[in-house]
Write a structure and sequence with these properties.
391 residues; alpha/beta; Nucleotidyltransferase, domain 5; Helix Hairpins; Serum Albumin, Chain A, Domain 1; 5 strands; 6% strand
């Protein structure tokens, strides 16, 4: 015999072919407990009410169960029950209304207003729990971390450029010799006045001998002004603050890599921490990234160019964010589209493994991608005739 199973915030019930209640179990009138039970049902988990209801139905000979809810069906499979999902009839709402009528008939609530108030409180509790769960997902932490890292990078470069202008009054030649802002800031923080620079201490800072000698020679013959001690002190203090800024940025990069190694190890192995985090951020989370096709991943971040090509009929973009990968942006122009397509395919696989708790295959996926890049480079060492026309 067949029975239709329906659940609501009030309980779980079974109805026969005539929509007459066969068996049912009301949940306790405890808002928090009901919210937790409904969340368990939403995830298809095990529930004591499911076990008891299934036992009663079997004793009555009902061995075929029908439900409109796939999650409820999943919960019953833990009891080895034969469940069919059928939402064609569309009578779930009517049966849930019947459950509410039964609740009033059996005195579960003093009035209909009390029932409505209870349902409202359960809805609010479920919404609160859902928000807390979503907010606590670690891929959202990755999103915020990479956005913060971008802000730190922007601010650091802005202040470093300001320091170059400021210190340039004292040692203008250094600006053209030391292009890396991190190194520039550290040198001012460590040595301050230009005459403190020597080849030995510059070598200790990691500079090459050639650059060290050029820098010292220019310091000795600089056209810069000899600043007052208090002016120079302000510049040096500012550079020390920037060093702390730099350290904060490095610490955040380490946090980002550590978090990705736990949440998305396969993507991390393929793309590295920064690009991995950017893809997770731009899609709104790891689950969303895992649902994207390889062709969509390939152009993520290039949506404006894609829509423009659709409107105007021009060539669509071959890559978006993944252009930041070294194997794409360092490749010749005619190879980039092919490499981007290969990388996007591997990202799609890695994202699904990470999102759905698959095995770690990061090194294997990375190796397969590297082999494909090698094939592309060997097969297309020069642009084709088509590539020249499209170039």
């Amino acid at each position: 015999m067949r029975a239709t199973i329906v659940h609501s915030p009030l309980g779980i019930f079974a109805f026969d072919a005539l929509d007459i209640s066969l068996e049912g179990l009301f949940f306790p009138n405890d808002v928090r407990l009901v919210a937790k039970k409904l969340e368990t049902l939403r995830k298809g988990g095990e529930l004591e009410e499911i076990h008891e209801l299934n036992t009663r139905l079997r004793e009555k000979g009902y061995n075929q169960l029908i439900t409109e809810d796939a999650s409820l069906a999943a919960s019953f499979t833990h009891e080895n029950a034969k469940v069919t999902i059928d939402n064609s009839a569309g009578k779930g709402g009517l049966l849930r209304k019947r459950i509410e009528e039964l609740a009033l008939e059996q005195g579960r609530f003093k009035s209909d207003e009390a029932r409505l108030a209870f349902l409202h409180d359960v809805s609010v509790a479920i919404a609160r729990d859902t928000i807390q769960e979503e907010s606590g997902k670690r891929d959202l932490m990755i999103t915020q971390a990479v956005l913060t890292l971008d802000d730190l990078e922007h601010a650091f470069n802005l202040f470093a450029n300001r320091l170059r202008e400021w210190f340039g009054y004292h040692f203008p030649e250094m600006n053209g010799i030391i292009g890396d802002s991190d190194t520039y800031v550290h040198l001012i923080s460590s040595f301050g006045e230009r005459h403190n620079l020597t080849v030995d201490n510059l070598l200790n800072e990691g500079l090459t001998r050639e650059v060290s000698e050029i820098l010292v020679r220019n310091a000795e013959n600089s056209m810069g002004a000899n600043l007052r001690e208090d002016d120079l002190k302000e510049i040096i203090d500012f550079s020390k603050h920037l060093v702390q800024f730099y350290e904060s940025r490095k610490h955040l990069e380490m946090y980002l890599e550590e978090t990705l190694s736990q949440v998305a190890p396969n993507i991390l192995a393929l793309l590295g921490p920064t690009l991995s985090a950017r893809l997770v951020a731009i899609t709104g989370g790891l689950d969303n990234l895992a649902r994207k096709s390889a062709s969509t991943i390939q152009v993520l971040g290039a949506e404006k160019a894609l829509f423009r090509s659709l409107r105007s009929g021009t060539r669509p973009p071959k890559h978006g964010l993944i252009f930041q990968h070294k194997d794409i942006h360092q490749a010749p122009r005619w190879q980039r589209g092919k490499i981007a397509r290969a990388l996007a395919g591997k990202v799609a696989i890695a994202a699904r493994l990470d999102a759905y708790h698959g095995e770690y295959r990061g090194k294997e996926i990375q190796r397969e991608f590297e082999n494909r890049v090698k094939e592309i480079r060997e097969k297309y060492p020069q642009p084709t005739a088509k590539g020249k026309r499209n170039g």
